[in-house]
Amino acid sequence: MEQQQPLDDLFAQRLAKLQALRDRGIDPYAPERFDRTHLATEILAQFDALSESGETVAVCGRIVSLRVMGKASFLHLEDVSGRVQVYLKLDAIGAEQFALLEYIDIGDFLGVTGTVFRTRTGEITVQAARFEILAKALRPLPIGKQKGDEQWYGLQDVEQRYRQRYLDLVVNPWSRATLLKRIQVTREIRRFLEDRGFLEVETPVLQPLAGGAAARPFITFHNALDTHLHLRISLELYLKRLVVGNLEKVFEMSKVFRNEGISPRHNPEYTLLEVYQAYTDLDGIMELTEQLVYHVVCAVAGGPTFTYAGHQIDVTPPWPRVPMMARLEECAGVTRADFATLESAREAGRRLGLPMEEEHSIGGIIDKIFEKACEPGLIQPTFVVDHPLELSPLAKKKPGDPWLTRRFEAFLGAQEVANAFSELNDPLDQRERFEAQQAMARAGDQEAHPYDEDFLRALEHGMPPTGGLGIGVDRLAALITDVPSLRDVILFPQLRPEK
Question: Is the pTM of this model over 0.85?
Fold first, then answer.
């Protein structure tokens, strides 16, 4: 079998076949176009009408199986829709074309013209009248296993799947199906929001200050401006500027960049959705979030339920609302009194076995305790509400309890998938929050929010009551498609350089 030979030998053999074709006056890379009449699945679906009429069809795609048997050959062509069998018979295509089969390999692209019939085994097939080589593959497809005389193609090495995604898409149908569903997720998000009057906008990727989230940015240098710039870590502050500018319902679904670790739940470059709506509050955004996720799940999974990591998850609204501090007391045995000072908060973290040496804020410690003790139990969709102020420097304070804020995080499958605020629009309060964040930065917190004077100036011109929402699109897609890692729903995830 082909894969049993060294790859260098196979590459040399295919180069020799390429040269042999060129010696015959055929350049496999010369064709610029092939006029296809039907996709593979259309051939299968329309077989009765096509066979009855004797209509000529033209199909094209990559060869994924090939059997040469004397004066006849069978192959399968795969296109974007699926695959269809092709029958090439010496007396039908002629000796000159039949001789070219000697120089064809699995992985090559072929265009075939002919009529359809059903073989004795019942398989719908195109009987070729002629074919054209559209491109030659010089490297073989990876062979996963063999069954009898057939080769089954597959790519099992996880790192190779991510690093050579083009091969993964060719030979692993389940991976291709997952990534197509991820594309469907973004399409349905746009459809849902546009149907409700939201405008899709674009904001800067390169920013003088990277604000809107607690994260470390990537920093670059712009030669013409002679200044350092940051790759954005969030979309929030520029979208709020648009609300100040009387764009009342806006969203952006774009890449953000965070200079942090890589894990099954984290990629330094990922797709974030942020939505802002004037004249609504946190409760209005909760309803929007429930309906958005419900719409997307129904469209992609075929109904309001899906399975993730062995759990059947039902996203039918309404979702329960759980106060963060009540959940912490229930799961971790800590209360608000444990977070009266930074040292008491560190002691609470140590009691739960968490390292506290690098923790410089009470809010960060609360977040880590919640992640360890509470998140694993949040399988079904749940809104966790009333976050402490120090965790939420861009959210309004909760009326009657200024230690807390009007914020929620939405959880599915024990993962945070959404974060939302009743947005802080008091410029004086926002200035005080930024000053507190600067104090945290001076104390060593590398993820503290920067002091953004231009954003404060925008707020000073007036921003209406606004609700805002952020959703990690890759994480939502990974949940719906039941894959263990964000890398399975990112076409080209970040990896260490090849050695």
Answer: yes
